UniProtKB/TrEMBL annotation:
The chain crosses the membrane at residues 20-45, 65-86, 98-125, 145-164. It comes from the Bacteria. Keywords: Membrane, Transmembrane, Transmembrane helix. This is DUF2269 domain-containing protein. The keyword Transmembrane helix applies.
C-alpha cells in the first residue's frame, strides 16, 4: 500500500513532513550538544591555561560560537520537537517520556537564554577590556563548568528517553485512548 493511500489521523504529519521534522529535530539537537562540547573545550582551556592571550581567545571564541548559534539552535530543537510530537501518535503530553523531554528542553532553552548567554557575554566583555598580559577573573571562570555539566546531562537524558520511551502514558494520554476506543466501537 502506498503512503498516499494509508489512512492517517487528521492530526498526524504526512510521512515526508514527519521525516523532515525528525531530521531538523535530530540535527538541531546534535548541534546544540556539539556547541556545548565546543564550549566545554573552550571553558577548560580558559580555566587551565597559563597564557592570558590563550585564555582571552578561548573566552572570545565561546562568545562567537555560543552568542550566535546557541539561541537559534536551541529554539529550532524546541520548535521541531513540538511539531514532531504534535504531528505523530506520541502527542505533546500523551506519553511521559515526551512530556519529560518537553520540560527538559524548555528548561535548557530558558537557561540558555536567561543565564548562559548573558554570562558568556559578560565574560567576553571582561576579556575584551582586559589587557593582553592579564588574566580574566580566575575564580569566576570555574563556574563555566556547571552549565556544561547540567546541559550535557539533560541532553543525554533526553536521548535515553527518546530511545527507550519509558513511563507509559500520562493520565491525559489514557483518557484520550479510552475515548478513542469508545468512539471506535459499534453502537
Amino acid at each position: 500500500m502506498s503512503t498516499s493511500t494509508v489512512r492517517r489521523s487528521p492530526k498526524t504529519l504526512p510521512p515526508r513532513w514527519r521525516k523532515l521534522a525528525l531530521v531538523v529535530h535530530v540535527v538541531s539537537s546534535l548541534g546544540w550538544l556539539g556547541i556545548t562540547m565546543v564550549n566545554a573545550v573552550l571553558t577548560f582551556t580558559s580555566v587551565f591555561t597559563d597564557d592570558p592571550r590563550r585564555q582571552q581567545a578561548a573566552i572570545l571564541m565561546m562568545d562567537q560560537v555560543g552568542g550566535y548559534l546557541l539561541l537559534p539552535i536551541s529554539l529550532t530543537a524546541l520548535v521541531s520537537g513540538i511539531v514532531l510530537s504534535t504531528g505523530t501518535k506520541w502527542g505533546l503530553v500523551r506519553y511521559r517520556w515526551v512530556a519529560i523531554k518537553l520540560v527538559l528542553t524548555l528548561i535548557a532553552a530558558g537557561l540558555t537564554l536567561f543565564s548562559l548567554l548573558p554570562g558568556i557575554g559578560e565574560l567576553a566583555a571582561a576579556a575584551e577590556s582586559t589587557m593582553d598580559d592579564a588574566f580574566v577573573e580566575r575564580g569566576r571562570r570555574v563556574d563555566g563548568f556547571y552549565p556544561i555539566i547540567v546541559s550535557t546531562m539533560m541532553y543525554m537524558t533526553m536521548t535515553v528517553l527518546s530511545v527507550y520511551k519509558p513511563g507509559g502514558k500520562t493520565p491525559y494520554g489514557r483518557r484520550v485512548t479510552a475515548i478513542r476506543v469508545r468512539e471506535s466501537q459499534p453502537a
